[in-house]
Specification:
The protein is mainly alpha-helical. It folds into 2 domains: about 300 residues, no CATH class; about 160 residues. Helix 3 packs parallel to helix 6. The longest helix has about 160 residues. The two termini are about 35 Å apart. About 5% of the residues are buried. Keywords: Coiled coil, Membrane, Transmembrane, Transmembrane helix.
Amino acid sequence: MDGGDGVVSAEEKLKKLQEETEAWKKMAAAQLKEAASKNNKLREELKVVLEEKEKALANLRLQLSTEFKDRSGVLRDENKTLQSSVQTLKEEKVQLQLSHAEEIKNVTERITSVERVEYERQLREQEEAHQAALAKLEKSLQSKKEEVERLTGEVTALRQKVPVEDDLKELHELEAAEEAEKKGLLDVDTLQSELALLTEKWEREKEQAESLTQTVQELRYELQRQQEQTSMVQALLRQSESDQNNLQQRLASGQDEQHNLDKRYAAKVATLSKELALAMEKVQQLERQEHDLHERLTAANKDVDDLTEEAASREAALQSLLLSEGDRQRIHQLQTTVEEKTDEADSWRKKYYDLLEQSPSLRREADEEEQSIDKTPQQTTEEEHSFLTPGKTPLQSSKKNITAREAELEEREKALNFKEEEVHRKQLLVASAENKLNEARRQLSQQAALLTPQPVKPAPDTGASRPAAMTSTNTNSTGRMLPAWFAAARGSPKVKLFFSKPAYMVPMVALIFILFLLMMRVDTSPTPPG
């Protein structure tokens, strides 16, 4: 009876244990389904967040590219206009130099003509004085001739009136008169010779005066022609001054337009700064969400580990109740063999990875084979519930899944490293392009400083202090200072990932893989009954 009671009690215990095991399996399946639904919901939320982030980054990248193109076009147009203005100013400078030399020449010729006119006036005064002296000599000669004629008439009259007895006296008087007349005639001849000499001298001076008059007339004509040329040059000078005033007005209007463009771009930069701040807030929110998800996954992983340990202890207790000592030894030997085979597979896997790293062709083929192998949701569900089959234990299935996923993760990490190298190369190209743009801006600022009335210091070139991968500066393209928080945000490595094309995908893809592995670990871990 006692033996029968013992058998009945053992059968009841075994039946009770089987019922508890079935209930535990059902509860574990329900918990796994709930965890799978939660994981799907988290995947959907993460997908929506990533899509929103991708859209925001695409819009920001598009705005930055359009702004860069607009600024490049405006700077190119300003460079062309400034070069044309410099060329016109150089031509006007040459014309002004030529006109200045012509004016100096005209002034010199005018001074020469004035000196000639003064010399002509002096010659005219000398000629008038000579004419007056000649007229005076002619008057004195005429008076001498009249006096001789008068004396001759008087002598003739006296000869007729004087009596004969007085002939001797008269003869003496006549001889004296003749001597006086001869003396007067000698004076007249002297005066006539002097008059002839003066006449010849006057003729010569008259000829010289006529030649001087002709020269003066020619000089007058030349002066008139030079005055006409001077008036024409003055008209050209006034026209050039008006053109220069127009050019200055155009430069002033260009400076006003540039100031307006600076204001508009400053407004654009302010709006983009606000959008960047909003994007940074969204990124911080995403980081907080990521941190929360990471904490939840850590807690879930911890719960899974606890549940795995508890399940292993329950399974060991169940096996100790159901199996004999020999069966337990065989199971222990099988587990030891499985661990040895797992270590051997790890060593072979390391050798395989080393071989793939040495030969890129095998690596590409392995990547293609890995991409071609795509598990269906049904297979994933079968793997999640495979631990329920009596032939496999949850610990063994989880080890195999973890090993396979670790291998897949290592392959993905290698691909991500290759992508990071490409991203670094593209960042170097972007940095070199920005350095060239800064050099063009510096040259334009120097040319603008040459054209402005007051010297303006060119904007400092900050291209040399920038890193090779991403440039961080406190000034925009127009040389204006940006806010300190904007410069600090641009210098942070998180924002650098946003401004480079594919760089932001690297950490996100790695994070997605880690989350996926942790979720799969949650899916494949059973939960014992409470």
